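Troubleshooting: if your tokenizer reports a length mismatch, compare your output against this known-good record of 432 residues.
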Amino acid sequence: MNRMNSKRILVAAAALAVASLSLAGCAGGDSGDTGDGGDVTMTFWHNSTTGDGKQYWDDTVAAFEEANPGVTIEVQSVQNEEMDGKLQTSLNSGEGPDIFMARGGGKLADIVAAGQVKDLTAGLTGATTNDVGAALNAFAIDGKNYGVPVSILPSGIFYSADLFETAGVTEPPATIADLETADADIDATGVAPIAVGAKDAWPAAHWYYNFALRACSQDVLDEVATSHEFTDECWLKAGENLEDFLATDPFNDGFLTTQAQQGATSSAGLLANHKASMELMGAWNPGVIASLTPDERPLADLRWFPFPEVPGGDGGEGAMMGGVDGFSCWVNAPDACVDFLNFIVEKQNQEAYATAFQTLPASTAAQSVVTDETLKNILDAYNKAPYVVLWLDTLFGQNIGNALNVAVVDMFAGKASPQDIVDAVNSAAAKS
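Known-good structure output:
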């Protein structure tokens, strides 16, 4: 089964300009028509547990309910690191939430194969398909659509410009050697060079993903999207390059027990409070960091640069790793679920989403609202990227992806070799 195209999964950005913000208007279909012949109650799970993000979803749900009399949406906030496991348990029980987070790739393909997610193809409005465009590809399985994206999330390294200046680092590192030099200069000031929340596994694994992005050719990355096996020698080379980087001791003390996004001592919190200088993360990070600064405001000196180039690899220069956050409907969800997904990608709602989460909206019609220089730089790098590859754990699905992430964390802990990472993935793929 052709599960996913791993090339251009994100949307090219429109020209950036200031735009006005407002919430909602009318639903994606006829206002008030639930398509279900009576009052409807739906459950909705998202991963925004605090601050502006949580308020955005509360406001958006209220606006949809007002525009659609007879529809009630019961909202539940689920901590991001708990979402996958809790969702899978709920879906397997046959009582999945009607509306839930989805990120495409193998994870989505697995629940499609299990008959747990609704085919949205016929229900998406022309406005949705036109404005969201290529980002829908992340949720396409065998020519049908099973999700709607709300944000595009290319990754890279976020950093504190003030801490760089204090350490005498005058330019963002362009190569991995430059990054190692910057790490040493920053460490000499008493600040952790890079924060990583390895307790949550995936933030550590993202380091391997990006080393693989630099080591492996586009053809190899395309092939692994369907084979889910590490057969090319570049996968081993990526692990060896990561092992060499780990030997330079670039991360915060206690990184194996550090969480990614919860509290001041998380990896995002360390950067937010100038206890660490950098963090490798996706484009949602500015909003997370803002919620963890002392005044809960955006970090004024936050900047970004692409993952450094690694000499000797076959990856395309400027290629990026990234993802798409979106939402799907449970297979037995009422038709109003599809109306809600059309609604959340309307221009006004996408503009409000980008502002609330300080991130990049999936809708090209709403991208003019992005004025933050850091996010604009991310979009610029994305537009110049020869291709963008989906997070490997998302691409592979939960079982293989978890095996990969655990093996990488074991390397971070000094308990696994580059070959162990390759073996873990191939073993998990053989069982899938």
